[in-house]
Amino acid sequence: MLNINPFREGVKAALPIVLGYLPVGMAFGLLARQSGLTPIEAGSMSLLVYAGASQFLAIDMISKSISWFPIVVTTFFINLRHLLMSSALSLHFKEYGLRTLTFLSAQLTDESFAVAMSNPSKISNRPSYLFGLQITSQIGWIVGSVSGALFGKWVDHKEYGIPFALSSLFICLLVLQINSIHHLWVMVIAGIASVFFKWVFPGNWYLLLTALFASGIGITIEMVMRDQK
Amino acid sequence: MRISVLILILGMGLVTFLPRFLPMAFLTRWAIPERVKMGLGYIPISILSAIVFPILFFNVEGEIEIQAHALLSAIPIFIFAWKVKSLWGSVILGMLVYWGLGFFF
After folding, report:
1. Least CA distance to A50: which residue of chain B?
2. Tens-place pLDDT, residues A64-97
3. Which of A15, A40, A167 has the CB atom closest to B55's CB atom?
4. Structure pTM?
5. CA distance A177 to chain B (A)
6. Residues ≥6 apart with Cβ < 8 Å to B61
7. What is the distance between the alpha carbons of residues A163 and A81, in angstroms, rounded to a whole number?
8. Number of Cβ pairs < 8 A linking chain A and chain B
9. Which of A71, A144, A195, A204 is the most buried (most CB within 10 A)?
10. Contact assignment for B50 to A194 by CB distance below 8 Å
11. Cα–Cα distance between B22 and A82 in angstroms, integer?
12. pLDDT, tens only, B67-100
């Protein structure tokens, strides 16, 4: 059942994400239109797939006349990183029915995950909060996509610092995660590792590799510190 | 909607849904070892670092190259986020700083 107060809190927490999703969604809608998709098709993709990076890549592949199968395979690999986010979130939701878990997991994105994790006490066993956060974000993404497909050619997406909106959101969310000296070290190591992995490996593998490597380092640091005490 | 596009969207939707759903469905029902829990606690900061740092060191073609415009914009946001801890403020300040610096790049 939906609890209205945590739901509202979740909606509010999503607003900075919406600010970032609207222009990026519009850019997606515009490009989707240019690659031959209709506004309804662009909107359906944002409704049923809801994964920014793979949607942009799909559009790029569609415009190169690549068939659906390689696009789906690529999408799968890009979005494997959600395995780790979903695992981290699962610690906060015990004993909920599959229907609730289906709704919560279907709308998981990098941004909503990061906002949820910036204050874990808000999400722990409060599915309504997470639902409010995620549904609001996705509505922002869908509205952006459809309006971009309809009116995108009259808006300049490269102006007014729009390209940096989501980057700023991520920087702030990263800073909010630094709540101990261990986390600071993990950030430094993950930062170096991500640049190295992206440089060496193709595609989006660096995200998954960095997450596994750096959280492994996190465990090691914590174990060593604990043994010293 | 064209049937070929529908197949594409449903296929993409399915392969995106599974990695989002499966851990949530199973791990909430299993007992998680302490060390794995500890590791999962570092997933948010690891993934966020892996999203943020490459923005500063790779160009849009994915080649390694210092992004002076993004780097100079990121530093004040980093400090602001550290002091004020406001998502809204960071996004708006980030856009303003990036836009302002745009006149020099």
Report:
1. B13
2. 787 888 889 888 988 888 998 999 999 898 878 8
3. A167
4. 0.82
5. 6
6. none
7. 23
8. 284
9. A144
10. yes
11. 10
12. 999 999 999 999 999 998 888 888 889 989 999 9
pLDDT averaged over every residue in chain B: 90
CA–CA distance, A12 with B15 (Å, rounded to integer): 30
Q: What is the token pair recorded at A9?
A: 């809190």
Question: Rounded to whole angstroms, how far apart are CA atoms A102 and A194?
Answer: 31
H or E segment to which residue A182 belongs: helix A181-200
Residue type, A113: F
Q: How far apart are CA A43 and CA A25, in angstroms?
A: 10
How far, in Å, CA of B46 to CA of A145, rounded?
Answer: 29
Give me the interface pTM, i.e. the ipTM. Answer: 0.89
Q: What confidence score (pLDDT) does residue A156 get? A: 65
Residue B103 carries which side chain, given as an amino acid letter?
Answer: F
**Quick one: tokens of A36?**
């031959």
φ and ψ at B64, to 5 degrees? -70, 125
Kindly report the length of chain B.
Answer: 105
pLDDT over 80 (residue A4): yes
Cβ burial A100-133 (10 Å sphere, 16+ → b, else e): bbeebbbbbbbbbbbbbbbeeebbeebbbbbbbb
φ, ψ at B58 (rounded to 5°): -130, 140
Counted residue by residue, chain A has a size of 229
Strand-pair partners of B58: B64
Residue type, A116: A
Per residue in A151-191, pLDDT (tens digit) is 877 766 666 777 788 788 889 889 988 989 999 999 999 99
Nearest by Cα to A203 from A29, A49, A76, A42:
A76
Residue A146: name the closest of A60, A44, A14 by CA: A44
Please name the residue ranges forming H helices in A64-126.
Answer: 68-78, 82-90, 98-106, 110-117, 120-123
Residue A170 φ/ψ, nearest 5 degrees: -65, -40
